[in-house]
Structure formats: C-alpha cells, structure tokens
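Progress note, sequence design subtask.
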C-alpha cells in the first residue's frame, strides 16, 4: 500500500480535496415542502364542493318555485271549471222555468225577471246589485265545492216573427217570444267567476 499523497512510482501526488456542496435545511421546512401539494389539493376540493353546493341549492330553489307555480295554476284551473259548471247548472234551471204554461210578469216586480235595459244603459249582468239576494234568483239545486250558489236572471226580449209560421200572403207571420238568460257562477273562491248567456225561444 502506498502512503497518502504518494504514487507507487515514488512521485508525490497533489493533494485532492472533494468538497460536497449542498443545502442544509431543517426537518420542519422539509416536511412543509413535502405537504404543500396535498394542502393545495384539499383547498381545490373544498372550493369545488362549495360551487357544487351552490349549484344544487339554486336547482332546488328553482324546482320549489316551479312546483308552487304549478300548484297555483292547477288550483286556478279547478276554480274556473267549478265556476263554469255552477253557471251552466243555473242556466239549465232558468231554461226549465221558462217551459211552464204561464210565466210571471217581467216588469221588475218578480225577483230576477226583467225587461231588457234601454240602449246606452249598462247591462243588468254588469251591475253588482243584480247578483245580490234581491236582484237575481238562486239556484235551487245542490253543488259541492263552490263558494256560493250560482244565480241567474231572465230578460224578456221583444217578440220576433217566426219564420216557420204561416206563409199565406194574407196572414202575418206569427210572433214568438225570446228570453235572454244570464247565469253567474263562482268556483271554490269568489275570485273565479263565470257568466254564461243563452237565448230561449218560447
């Protein structure tokens, strides 16, 4: 074995120094650098979770609003149907009352029986007083789920010639009576109102 710094051939070798250059860091700082990516990932996941929660909340609120609107629409349609059925029932009852042999006078002395208003005057069915207890006739039948019984009025219109009468040249055409029936019905609430009219020839 040769001595340090001397080669086998007797020549002195130059001293050789090996210096390892490195950066010494504390164990705490090293651990902190190791865990930095994991912390960043947890932050991104939390942010995305909050975004998804916000989106789901908006979807839920919108669905609730749509459901509430649909319920109101269904309720309004039901009220409208009930008011129509009530007005139609009153209309049929009024037509049946016109089929008796002798009618009462249409001079305002009998409830619900009128002469038509003059030209330029407000129609009777548009007056709120007409649909009060003393201004119109109430339906005598029984109807379920309506807020109030339907009511009706009958107006005696001027007589008109009957085209199906005699065609003799020396005979005038016979006259026929025409009555205008107006019925008003309410649905499940007084907000849904239907007014129907029909002409009845006698």
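Output:
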């Amino acid at each position: 074995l040769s001595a340090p710094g001397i080669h086998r051939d007797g020549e002195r070798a130059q001293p050789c120094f090996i210096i390892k250059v490195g950066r010494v860091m504390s164990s705490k700082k090293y651990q902190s650098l190791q865990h930095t990516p994991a912390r960043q990932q947890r932050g991104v996941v939390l942010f995305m979770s909050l975004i998804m929660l916000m989106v789901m909340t908006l979807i839920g609120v919108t669905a609730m609003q749509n459901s509430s609107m649909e319920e109101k629409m269904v309720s309004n349609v039901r009220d409208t149907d009930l008011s129509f059925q009530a007005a139609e029932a009153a209309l049929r009852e009024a037509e049946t009352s016109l089929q008796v042999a002798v009618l009462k006078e249409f001079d305002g002395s009998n409830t619900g029986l009128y002469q038509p208003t003059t030209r330029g005057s407000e129609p009777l069915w548009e007056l709120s007083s007409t649909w009060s207890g003393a201004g119109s006739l109430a339906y005598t039948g029984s109807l379920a789920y309506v807020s109030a019984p339907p009511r009706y009025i009958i107006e005696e219109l001027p007589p008109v010639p009957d085209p199906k009468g005699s065609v003799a040249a020396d005979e005038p055409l016979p006259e026929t009576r025409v009555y205008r029936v107006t019925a008003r019905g309410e649905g499940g609430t007084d907000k849904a109102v239907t007014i129907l009219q029909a002409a009845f020839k006698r």
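DSSP finds one helix and five strands in the chain. Work on this subtask will continue into the next period as scheduled.
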